[in-house]
């Protein structure tokens, strides 16, 4: 079995229903459909400050606290 590739350009309507007429050489059966689109970038997320400001205010500071790290003992190697 050989995987084939077919590409078509389409305009997504308001109802987000996409109707395609495929060429007859594509056999009936299961296919994989990939939607590739350009995503507009929200200007508030261009910097780390905007990203952090957009995070929801949930939980307490203790919920996100890290345990104290006392490091590791020095490993001794036999030469």
What does this structure look like?
The protein is low in regular secondary structure and 79 residues long. It has one helix at 48-53. The termini are far apart. The model has no long low-confidence stretch (mean pLDDT 84).
Outline the secondary-structure elements.
Layout: H1 48-53
Q: Could you name the key traits of this structure?
A:
79 residues; little secondary structure
Characterize this entry briefly.
This protein has one helix at residues 48-53. The protein is low in regular secondary structure and 79 residues long.
Distance between the termini: 57 Å
Structural class: little secondary structure
Proportion of strand residues: under 5%
Q: pLDDT below 50 for ≥5 consecutive residues: which ranges?
A: none
Number of strands: 0
**3D shape:** elongated
Share of helical residues: under 10%
- Summed up, the helix count is 1
The largest sheet is: none
Average pLDDT number: 84
Give Rg in angstroms: 26 Å
Listing every helix as H and every strand as E from the N terminus to the C terminus, the arrangement reads H
């Amino acid at each position: 079995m050989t995987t084939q590739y077919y590409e078509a350009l389409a305009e997504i309507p308001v109802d987000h229903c996409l109707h395609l007429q495929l060429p007859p050489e594509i056999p009936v059966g299961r296919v994989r459909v990939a939607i590739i689109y350009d995503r507009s970038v929200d200007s508030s997320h261009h910097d780390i400050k905007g990203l952090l400001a957009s995070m929801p205010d949930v939980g307490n500071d203790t919920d996100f606290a890290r345990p104290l790290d006392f490091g590791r003992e020095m490993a001794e190697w036999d030469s």
